[in-house]
Amino acid sequence: MNTNHLKARMEDYSRFIITLLILSVYFYLGTIITTYLTESDYGALMMGLTTVSMGAAFFFTLRWKKCSQVLQDQESQ
């Protein structure tokens, strides 16, 4: 792969990670609000969405790390 392409991909992945972590915080705060402040049946749904968004952030972190390793290998050659 091209180094510019890998750098652009890593930049996109880092933006995805930050966005998903922010989204996870909002979902978690929504879970706290619906569970403790106002009674609602959406607590489990909100916790599920929090888990899914955290899992997606972890997935993109692994992809970012893989691109970083490939880029380091290309630069060392």
UniProtKB/TrEMBL annotation:
- One Pfam family name is YrhC
Classify the source by domain of life: Bacteria
Q: InterPro entries from the entry?
A: YrhC-like (IPR025418)
Membrane-spanning parts: 16-36, 42-62
Keywords attached to this Swiss-Prot or TrEMBL record, sorted alphabetically, are: Membrane, Transmembrane, Transmembrane helix
Q: What is this protein called?
A: YrhC-like protein
The record lists the organism as Pontibacillus salipaludis
